[in-house]
Design a protein that fits this description.
By secondary structure, the protein is α+β, with helices and mostly antiparallel strands. Helices cover 28% and strands 34% of the residues. It contains two helices and seven strands; from the N terminus they run ββαβββββα. The strands form two sheets. It has a five-stranded antiparallel β-sheet with strand order 2-4-5-6-3. The chain has a two-stranded parallel ribbon with strand order 1-7. A hairpin with a 3-residue loop joins strand 4 and strand 5. The longest helix is centred in the last third of the chain and has 28 residues. It is globular, with a radius of gyration of 18 Å. It starts with 10 loop residues before the first strand and ends with a helix.
Length: 169
């Protein structure tokens, strides 16, 4: 019995996955101190990362995990929040997307980096089953550095998951 030849895996560059979006922060986005809620920022990060993941996979994608998020400094009402997202690493069905968050005081013309985060997405079919994603092709030194760092984070995540499974057995 012969098996069907496997088709070559598609490839996409980091540039093809990049997404940038911005939103003006309004009073409904903030607490009583005028600082934007962390949940508002997390939702924006998740959406920006989803766009990058879908661009890469050309498939529906779901959030599998969000790494640690540290809010370095507050974002204020009136700030323009800019999300910059791109795929750092692609496994067989999952992808790590990096999101950089910047807040711009448009009156002063000053932009500041408020936080960054890594999110893992899985490409799925209509039934919610994982599907293969294209291979990621880093082109610059910076993209290659991010790719290697993401691969190391993926190894650590898998080791942690395996350790948790063994601890519950």
């Amino acid at each position: 019995m012969t098996t069907a030849p496997s088709r070559p895996r598609l490839k996409r560059t980091v540039k093809e996955t990049q997404h940038e979006t911005s939103e003006l922060m309004m009073p409904t986005d903030a607490n009583i101190l005028g600082h934007v809620f962390g949940g508002v920022v997390l939702a924006m990060m998740d959406k920006a990362a989803a766009v990058a993941a879908i661009r890469h996979a050309r498939s529906s994608c779901v959030t599998a995990s969000i790494d640690r998020v540290d809010f370095r400094e507050p974002i204020h009402v009136g700030d323009l929040v800019i999300m910059k997202a791109s795929v750092n690493y692609a496994g067989r069905t999952s992808m790590e997307i990096g999101v950089r968050v910047e807040a711009e005081d448009m009156i002063a013309g000053v932009r500041r980096h408020t936080n960054s985060c890594y999110l893992t997405f899985v490409a799925v079919d209509r039934n919610g089953r994982p599907v293969e994603v294209p291979e990621l092709v880093p082109e610059s030194e910076e993209e290659t550095r991010r790719h290697h760092a993401a691969a190391a984070r993926r190894r650590r995540r898998l080791e942690e998951r395996n350790a948790e499974r063994e601890a519950t057995v």
